Amino acid sequence: MTNRKENKQEKILAQKKIVLMGLAEAGRNTVCKKFLNEKWVPQKNDPYHATIDYETHERTICGTKFTFFNLGGQTAFLDRFLDKIPETIFGGIDTLVFIVDVIKIPELNRAKYYFDKALEKINIYNPKALIYIFINKMDLIPNSLKEEIPHTIKEYLLRKISIMKDKIQFYETSVFNNSTNRAIEAIYRANIHIFDEDLIKEKKKNKKINETIYL
Ligand SMILES: Nc1nc2c(ncn2[C@@H]2O[C@H](COP(=O)(O)OP(=O)(O)OP(=O)(O)O)[C@@H](O)[C@H]2O)c(=O)[nH]1
Ligand SMILES: [Mg+2]
Questions:
Q1: Global pTM?
Q2: pLDDT surpasses 80 at 212
Q3: Which residue from 75, 77, 81, 111 is spatially nearest to 93, judged by alpha carbons?
Q4: Separation of 47 CA from ligand 2 center, angstroms?
Q5: How do the domains of the chain map onto residue ranges?
């Protein structure tokens, strides 16, 4: 039996749904690719393709099958997700990753509008879901502003939030260094339940999985 067949037969012990949301060009595709393969390295001149509607992707780690909902960020799509198909998008959600472009301060008000609406939906569909905000593209701001700008963004996004405020976690990320992988690792750790330590030790020993950074 080949390794490939064995991997295919891996027992699914749990399923988790992760929703990636934010305004257009904030970096969801890029972050999603990192979730699917932490070794993938983006290039500065990679072509950009806007996500139309939404895409789903899957990855299984240690018996936990993750389904990623990578949502398009254009206004028409966001309004549709929230008003027309909220159950498809937020039903069964385990984790929201809301991605904000650190450079686009003028759009922060719109980002907050959609973040607040997403929280309302999560409060309906699964108030226990984990909530993360990535302040992304940190590589684009000068060192002198690396504390001040994220601080301002955090304060702004948390304004007037009355539900689930205490559990919102922020990560400052850039796909051009290790910060995105660190945030992703924290999210995987929060979602993966180690059901079977022996199974994991065995897999590590036989190098049948390459997700060891998440163990
Ligand atoms: N400098 C920098 N650029 C980034 C980073 N993350 C993503 N980008 C760039 O931002 C652009 C948009 O990235 P995507 O990942 O396609 O954005 P998206 O949120 O999926 O966009 P839509 O699907 O249009 O809503 C691309 O040119 C990426 O290369 C980052 O951390 N730093
Ligand atoms: Mg996209």
A1: 0.89
A2: no
A3: 81
A4: 12
A5: 11-214
